[in-house]
Amino acid sequence: MDRLTWAEINLRNYSYNFNSIKKIIGSKVKIIAVVKANAYGHGAVEIAKQATELGASYLGVVCMYEAKQLRAAKIKTPILILNYTDPASVSEALDLNLTLNVMDKEVISALDKNAGRKNKTAKIHVKVDTGMHRAGLMLDEALRFIPTIENYRNIRLEGIFTHLATSDERDLSFTYAQLARFDELLAKLKEKKIVPSLIHAANSAASLRVKKAYYNMVRPGVILYGLAPSQDFKMPFTPKPVMSIKSIVIQTRIIEKGETVGYGRTFKAEIKTAVAVIPMGYADGLRRGPVNWGFVLVKGRKIPILGRVSMDQTSIDITNIPHVKTGEEVVLLGKQLNNEITAEDIASKIGTINYEVVAGIASRVSRIYIR
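The chain above was modelled as a monomer; its predicted structure follows.
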């Protein structure tokens, strides 16, 4: 391994989650497997390969950087860039056979010209803002823009999509309001004889519980990695976490009562204390502050982190665990014997969501794939 802290990525669990989603949505609905942000920290290339084997129709990324990584790995599955692509990048996007989310005339004009020069037809999707108020065309803008696409000789409108703001919450009234706006737009486009072949709105939460949002394609993300999108609704299946994070003890020492550990001396020993050091720090994704992850597992027992997390290493309290030696396995996320630390546990501790816990694991942390 390049670093003595590693993330174990269980592809069998990924497959279980993927197939569970397939059963829920049915055979007629396609899947865009979202692999943005290095597949939520799990390693985009290997996850994309697995998703392709499992039958994903598309892979979802947010930028050219992510798409180029997949194409460099010889992945030929259709790729949709879900976010904005600037006009300067459209030529390369065409060379890589990417599908772009197009939301303005400048980009579509550049894409059309470059596609003409290359004797290609560019596939595009258009994102519509139905209430998220982030990226996307407002409904009136979409109704003006989308019919003009047929004026571009080298462009094909393949898809139209929206994103749901509250589909992970107990109250789904705003979700259904968004879908009603989306349906109204689709109906008006149909009157103009514009019917894109791919229509998608459902993220992970909606894929699990809002059948109306399926249309003919869904975009599951975090659920594929075994993480619940919310605690506000009952899951239709029990997802299996795909990532575990492990490290090893690289040194141990005994400090006396009154001695301190780490920068700022924020931990002061109240008794004689056994301290172990592990090679994982905030540059690896282990949060420093204002609150750190709190605990790790050693020999199946939950023990506290001591003092401040450093950039590359962290101290832990092994006082009550006998015979801990250099090389002893430490689990920061996942199971060890009969105990477990989940992404939800960590998220609750540091005041965030499970997405951020796994997505924040740095690239220098080795990924080991379990098949």
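The CA atoms of residues 343 and 354 lie 5 Å apart.
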